[in-house]
Design the sequence.
């Protein structure tokens, strides 16, 4: 792969228009960022769980604040790479004019990386998958193709993000968000279909999958335009776009460190435990004495969080620069975080271990996961049969609850199911709970 093709300002849905940016304030890639941040799907992230239950009296991160922080880290990773590349290639701005925009491309992709995640975090994804794998949705298996079935039993937020960004929903303008090809490619962590992903085959690029069947041709078009490398002897399995590694690293850095900070705010981890975990990442010989001068506990934790993130940004950007050629060749089959210095990697492994033991299995986290599982499954039990059958007055009333933008001119069972999933996966935590309670008769809407 080559940077000259990989970095493109061509816009999805506007391919045949001349790229003529007359906006003096923003580049094409900065416009991507702005389109995302002003969008409804992005705003809905403020009421979607990151890890801890929402809402609460103590501030913790939600999907929106997480995405903003990931975008900030991603911009830094991209800018550092560009600076190092320019030091080694003095003519870079003339030869590769878009390389200086890598920070903007990565930050835009970071904003969008969780756009397709349903309510209740990974529990929501699991609930959707379980409904088809062993719940009421299992009965529809013989109505869809094997490729489509793999989509349904492995719901993937990353693939859903691509759909949100490129699909023309009912009443909406063609082209979806009309983002640049490079920004779109930078969010596709697993550039293959479900039937070829989810661990079927070797390589990090096949760990999960990156697009649903309806978006297959869209993805292939993006990959061809950018010259993405295909897996040997397989026309529909691609190697990652290089910028995916930076988006992934930004996400890894943020959730690993920020979850520790949130756990302290909620009393799950003590300040002493946090300091033991983060001081080795501070990269500051005077950090202990600096901390001793700060009386406020939250401020000490915030300082350590900032220091740790800074260290990991420098480490991951160095790995990306050093491994650039292997990444461009499609031969780099690991995350950047897996290749930081051994000592730092051991610290991160300890943090991950503590996170699993103390944070992700904390009662409040498990409770929201279980409740979210029930809510998402319950909504699918109502909407999927009604939308597929549409035969009774009850079915028609249930269908009336689905907004028009999600109602397409469906022909097949899979297309109808996909429309329901578009609606259900777009819900915030609070809206999903409220709708579930009303549809199950647990509560009633106000008659005022």
Sequence:
């Amino acid at each position: 792969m080559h940077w000259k093709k990989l970095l493109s300002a061509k816009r999805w849905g506007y391919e045949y228009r001349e790229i003529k940016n007359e906006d003096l304030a923003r580049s094409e890639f900065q416009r991507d960022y702005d389109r995302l941040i002003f969008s409804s799907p992005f705003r809905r992230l403020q009421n979607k769980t990151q890890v801890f239950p929402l809402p609460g009296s103590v501030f913790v991160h939600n999907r929106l604040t997480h995405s903003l922080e990931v975008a900030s880290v991603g911009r830094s990773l991209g800018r550092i790479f560009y600076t190092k590349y320019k030091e080694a290639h003095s003519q870079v701005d003339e030869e590769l004019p878009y390389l200086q925009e890598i920070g903007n491309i990565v930050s835009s992709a970071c904003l969008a990386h969780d756009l397709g995640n349903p309510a209740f975090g990974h529990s929501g994804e699991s609930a959707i998958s379980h409904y088809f794998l062993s719940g009421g949705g299992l009965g529809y298996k013989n109505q869809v193709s094997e490729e489509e079935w793999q989509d349904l039993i492995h719901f993937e937020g990353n693939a859903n993000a691509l759909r949100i960004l490129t699909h023309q929903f009912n009443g909406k303008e063609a082209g979806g968000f009309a983002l640049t090809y490079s920004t779109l490619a930078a969010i596709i962590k697993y550039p293959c279909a479900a039937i070829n992903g989810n661990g079927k085959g070797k390589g990090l690029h096949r760990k999960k999958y990156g697009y649903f069947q309806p978006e297959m041709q869209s993805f292939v078009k993006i990959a061809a335009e950018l010259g993405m490398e295909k897996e040997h002897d397989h026309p529909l399995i691609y190697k990652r776009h290089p910028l995916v590694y930076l988006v992934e690293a930004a996400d890894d850095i943020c959730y690993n460190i920020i979850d520790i900070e949130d756990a302290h705010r909620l009393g799950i981890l003590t300040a002493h435990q946090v300091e033991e975990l983060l001081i080795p990442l501070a990269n500051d010989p005077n950090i202990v004495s600096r901390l001793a001068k700060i009386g406020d506990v939250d401020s000490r934790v915030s300082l350590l969080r900032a220091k740790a993130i800074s260290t990991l940004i420098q480490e991951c950007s160095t790995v990306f620069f050093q491994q650039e050629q292997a990444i461009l060749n499609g031969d780099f089959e690991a995350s950047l975080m897996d290749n930081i210095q051994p000592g730092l990697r051991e610290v991160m492994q300890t943090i991950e271990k503590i996170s699993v033991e103390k944070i992700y299995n904390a009662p409040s986290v498990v409770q929201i996961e279980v409740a979210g599982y029930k809510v998402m499954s319950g909504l699918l039990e109502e909407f999927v049969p009604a939308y597929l059958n549409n035969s009774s007055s009850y079915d028609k009333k249930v269908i009336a609850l689905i907004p028009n933008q999600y109602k397409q001119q469906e022909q097949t069972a899979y297309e109808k199911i996909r429309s329901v999933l578009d609606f259900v996966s777009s819900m915030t935590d609070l809206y999903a709970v409220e709708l579930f309670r009303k549809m199950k008769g647990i509560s009633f809407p106000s008659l005022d």
